[in-house]
Structures are given as structure tokens and as C-alpha cells.
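Protocol step 6 of 9: fold each sequence in the batch and record its C-alpha cells directly after the sequence line. For illustration, a two-sequence batch is reproduced in full.

Sequence one:
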Amino acid sequence: MRGIMECLRRNVLGIDIGTSSLKFLVTEPLDGGSRIVASVTRSYGLKSHGKQSVSLILKTFFEGLEAIAEELALVTEICVCGQMHGIVWWCSRDLLEAAKRLYRNGCGDHWPWSDLITWEDQRCSEAFLRECNSYCDDECDQLSKLASGYGIASFAHVVKSQPDFMSMYNYDTCGTIMDLMTSLLCGHDTPKQTCIDTMNATSWGPFDSGQMRWNAKFLNALQIPHNVLPRVRKHGDVAGKTVEAFGLPADARVLVGMGDHPCSVVAAAYSPTGRTFLPNVTTVNFGTSGQVALILSETQISAMKTDVSGGFEVRPFFHNQWIGVAASLSGGNVLAWFLAQVNAWKEDLNSEKPITMSELIALGMGRKRTTLTCSPTIFGERFASGLHGSFSNIRADNFGIGDMMAALCRGLVDNLVRMIPQSLRELALSQTIIGTGNGLIRNELLRFYLMGSLTHPDNLQIVDEALEDRFTAVFGATLVTRLEAPTSSV
């Protein structure tokens, strides 16, 4: 009987290629939900986040697959999600065989792929971005932005600084790291097979999401070759089927790669009873960075086109809807910086015992009504990389460590809220708020200030730590197969 039941099981493998780690999740779809069968996380150990070694990411990928080898035999569908905006180039005909060699040997050189230029890369100066944006015409989507670390901007910079880059390494295609991974899993060996979903295409920069096509005039002005760019597919479409390699079974359906953030929204707002999304929901996530997202209709998008702030982006979503995202580069990374700074001060004062984040939060809660204010943008923002942070309104009685921690957390919330366009702010802050991310779940100060910004504080629903795995991007990736009937790539 057990053998028969296993034959009937159809497991889904979700993969999240993050900035610092790879997450794997195997789920078994059930009526009204999913059962988590296996979960594994593997860190890269990368020191640089602006540019990352694809070889190291692939080695980590192979290690993760080996850790869940027993569960892979029953996998029939795979969805890869991960860090958005970044770009990697590769030689399509050599991709699979080179990856097999890396899988067998664990090392080598002369790989047919470039490094990954990530969303954190800062090679594009504000002057360079202004030059790129000057080529935008009326066909450029006003809701699709260009910033340093975005695929089109990175491609334009590489072309300008190294015109023979593509020919020198025989690269004939490109995509996000998720697109490279789906091409690898499917054994794609021609540039025409490389595909990118509409959400990730929009995250690269100016893109005609209505017509699902790249802006030819804009690309020509930037001297980006059209034939190298991936084919744009609808999110949820099938990119192909797996080849038998790396311990994976043959013929499992592989969906077009997706971004981690939209998959997080899927996980938070998914309604299993209708295989659709809960109505009137805003999601707030504080992890390394911070995001507010809400699902919007075409009517709402049209009404706000003249009211788009620099930090707010709009991307296509499921069921002919859109997702509006206020995305800040300032989040848990700023709090981690402050913790390190406080401990550096303690060392300067010859104090041996380091302070912990929980102690900082407790100090901040004791000063949550502080008059000290903080602009937390020490790492800049995508729309203004030159932004700096600051403390202000300093008085003799408000500049303790607790005051600084409280002001920093309040500043993080205020900074994120300001990114929401005025026309949507009341809606975003008045409907049900689902809070996710380690930064929010484990930081009472952030929750306090977030509740203070809401029209109805009781609407805030923080994900329980025991259920945290079900509100992650990788879990959302496993749900994508249940949202719509996927369209085949052939």
C-alpha cells in the first residue's frame, strides 16, 4: 500500500537563490494546503554581494540537492525563485556539460558563465543612469525603473566599458540567476530557449509589460543586442522539463524562474480554498531590506501613474493583477550595522562583554517615545544611491544607545511608508497587514512603530514563528503551480 501511495504523490520542489544562501523546500500538495516534506538551507560563504561567483552558487545548489536526495525521486514540478534585478551571461551550448563537470569534480576553471552582477552592485553612477534614462521615449513604461544593480543598467555599463565582453567569452544569452538555473535544469542549449518571466523582466528596467516585450529603441540607444536577451514569458508558464542530472528525475516540469519577493507575496496572500489571493491585503516584510506590497487592479494602476515615487515599483502579477512594491534598501542590514557599531564603541571603551540585538531592542523599548529622529539610509536607496543617514534633533537628554536604537527603528518604518505613493498610502495602511521577515517577527520596536503608522493597528497580523516557513519565498514558489494552469513552452 505504501508503494502505491508513493506512486500517487506528486511533490513540488521550490528553490530560492538568495543573496547569501540557497533554500530548498519539497512539498506535497493536499486539499486546502500543502505538507512540507523536506527543507534545507545552504549558505554560500560569499564575501562580496555586488558581484557573486555563479560557480560557487552552483556548487551550493548541488550540495543542497544531495541533502534531499531521497525526496527528489517523487518531484514532478519545480519552481525556482530568487534575488531579483541581477544579471548573468552564459554560453548556452556549453552550460549543461560544464555544470555536470563541476558537479563531478567540484572545481575547475574556464566556465561558460560570468559572475552574477546582483541588485546590490553600485557600478552605475547617478550620471550614468541619467544618461541611460535620457534615451527613454514615450514607449518606456513609467512604472518600470532603472537603477544601479538592475539588469538593463548593468548590461549597458558592461557594453560601454568592455564592448567585446560577449564575444571574448562566447556568451550568447543572459538572464537572472533563476533563468540560468531553469535553463540548466531543462538542458537548454540555444539562446532562443532562455526565458524570463514578466516580473523579473520588469525588475531589470524599462520594459513594456503591457505588450510583454523589450523596448527596442531604448535597447538600441544603449547598444544592447536584442538577440542576447531572454524571451519573455508569463509567470507560471512552463519553461521545459528536466533532464536527468544532478540527482533530479527526468521530465519534471520546470516553471519559468520568478523573483523572491512576488513569491513571498504569494505565500502571504494565498487563499487555498479558491486558489487565488485574499482580498484587501498589504504585506510588510523586514529582512535584510524592507518592502511593502499590495495587489492592485488595472484601474488603480492607471489612476496612480502620475503619482509614482522613486522608491515605488509596479510589476505584473497573477490573475491579470499588479503588485505595487515600496522597496527600501534599508532594513535589518542597518540594524546589523548599528549592532556592530555599538560593539565597536564598547571595544574602544575596553568593555569586554558584547551587546546583543535583543539587548539593543530592550534598550530601545525603554526609550520608544524618544524625541531623537533618524534617517536610516546609510546604504542609500535604489532611486538615490547618494543618500546618507543621520541622527537629528539631538538634545542633552535623548542621545543614549536606547534613544538611538528607537530612532533608528522608527526611521526604518517611516522611510518605508514614505515610499508608498500618496494616492495608495491610505489604502495600504488601512487594510489587513500581514507582517513577515525575521526583522519584524523578532523586533518588538519595529512592530511598535509599524502599528503606530497604521489606520487600524489591530489589522496588523505578524506571522507566528512556528508558521514562518509557510510565509517564505521558497514556500510561495511551491504554490505557484496551483494558481493557474501553466502554459507549455512548446
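Sequence two, same batch, same settings:
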Amino acid sequence: MPGEADSLPPQMNSKSAIFFMRLKILVSAVIITAFFMSVAIGTLFFLPLQNDMGNEAAVFGIETGSPLPLIAQRLESESFISNKYVFRFGVQLFGNAGRLKAGEFRIPTRSSMYCIMQVLTEGQAVLHSVTIPEGLSNIQIFNLLSYSPLLEGDITRTPSEGSLLPETYYFPRGSSRDALIMQMEKAMRQTLDQLWEKRAPNLPLKSQEEAVVLASIVEKETGIAAERSLVASVFINRLNKNMRLQSDPTIIYGLKKGEVLGRPIRKSEIKKPTAHNTYVIRGLPPTPIANPGRLALAATLNPAKTEYLYFVANGTGGHVFAKTLAAHNKNVKNWRRMR
């Protein structure tokens, strides 16, 4: 009838049915393929035994700013993972592409990619250590740190002499030298605060700064732990009597400002005027002559109760102490005979 839509020819109905059938088959194939690919990728990502690095964990390092493709490539080339693309896909799927941390990480043997991702995003970086010996000057500590290949950056901080605590410090590879120096300064402040609160009464030390100055002299005078409180007592007794400290290490610091002298002190240098030479000045030098350790600080703030005013080397690495100048001169003669 006029105005009614003409019905489609049978041939077109047949072609449409075939088209939609083929489309359904294609879509189904894509879905099935995607499903199985997802299962395969997921299996690879979560499957353990991805690496076989022996019985112990292996270390993998990531440099600052490394992109995910480079990290995945290195993991594959170093046999931590079997497929870099699967790792990249999994990391991106979990939203961790920008969360992989710089540093060195211990990856357990036979780890899955998922486990490796967790280690690189949540794990604790491998820590290295540096030991700062007691009695080094700032210059010597800076030289020690500058030669470490595990640290980065120039030393731009200028801490005061005696403000760095000699200790063993732990840090991840790539830490800045300035950051480690800040850690040493903080450790010294905390240690000094603790020991200052427990100091002996009536010490001739007006401040923590003066305690560090004297402790640095004690540190340089003896390396024997059992002697520190005795050496400290000598200097405390001398300060109480307004006697010059007459410490040889202060001569050296006045001459070299923290660098090694490399030879015996000359007779002409004993009375050479410098700000630190305690054969010339009375009282304490204006600054520490080194960075004292915890034991030297503790000995200085809690010295042995003695009447000693003198000490000299005993020829075997230690010292012999005396209350009077006559006894001291006798000890000096004995020491000279042993030289």
C-alpha cells in the first residue's frame, strides 16, 4: 500500500545475518584471546621461579631517574625476570610505574615479578656503612668521605670542628655526602646532650662547647680506653689550678689546622704562639682540635678522681701519671731511656 515501507529483499537479510554472525565470532575471538592473554600474562607475573640466582638473594640497583622500560630491560638482561614486557604491563596495571625507588635492593632467589615489584616499591634499600675513627679532624673526615664511591655530591656544608660524632653510619648507595655530614652533626648533638646531663659536678667547663674542646684533646692524647678518664682528670686538675694544659696535639693543630704533621714536633715549635698552643695560652683553645668520640666525651664529663697533674708515654703505647713535677721528671727520664 502507498506509504508503507518496502520490505528488504531476501538477499540483503541474508547478508546482514552473515555480517552480524561474523562480527559476533570476531568479538568473541577477541574477548577469548584477550582473556587467555590476560591469564597468561597474569600467570607469568605472579608465577614464582622467575629467576634462579642461586641460594642467596641477589642485589639489583636502580639509579635515580631510571624509567620503567630501562628497569625492565635490565631486570630481564640480568635474569631476574623472564619477560620485560610482562613486567612493564604488571607494574603499570598496579599503578606503580612511577613508584620504583632508586637504590640497591636484595631480590630473593626465584622471585615472581610481583614480588620483585613489591621489593622495588616497598622494600628497604641495601645499606652500606662508613666508619669514622675517633680523633679525626673535619678535613680528614671530608677526605675520607670524598673517596667513597658509594656517596654522591660535593661537600658544601662547613660544620665547625668537633661537631661530627665519630661512629659507624649506614646509608643506601647514592646518598649525598652533605646528608651524611648532617647525620653526624645530629648524632653529636644528641650524644652531647645526653652526656652533659650526667656530667660530674663542679667541672671547670662552662658549656657543652668547652666540653667538646677538652674531649678533643683527651681523644688525641690517648687511644687507650682505660686511660681516657685519667688523662681527662689531669687536664681538669690543671684547669682548676689555672695551669697551662701543655698538650702536644694542640701544638700540631695550631700548625696544621687539622692536617697531619707527618714528623715529630720541633723544639722551636713548642713555644710558637698560635691560638691553639696550650704551651703558650692558658685555659682551653678557642675550638676543638678534632672530633672526639663518645668515650672521650664521657671521660671528660666524668673524669677519674685523681690528683694527677702530669703524664708521659710509658714506651709501650700507654702513659704513666704523676702528681708532682719531680715524679713526672723521673718518668720522663725513664721514657727517654726506652726510646
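Proceed to step 7 once all outputs are recorded. Observation for sequence two: The mean pLDDT is 89.
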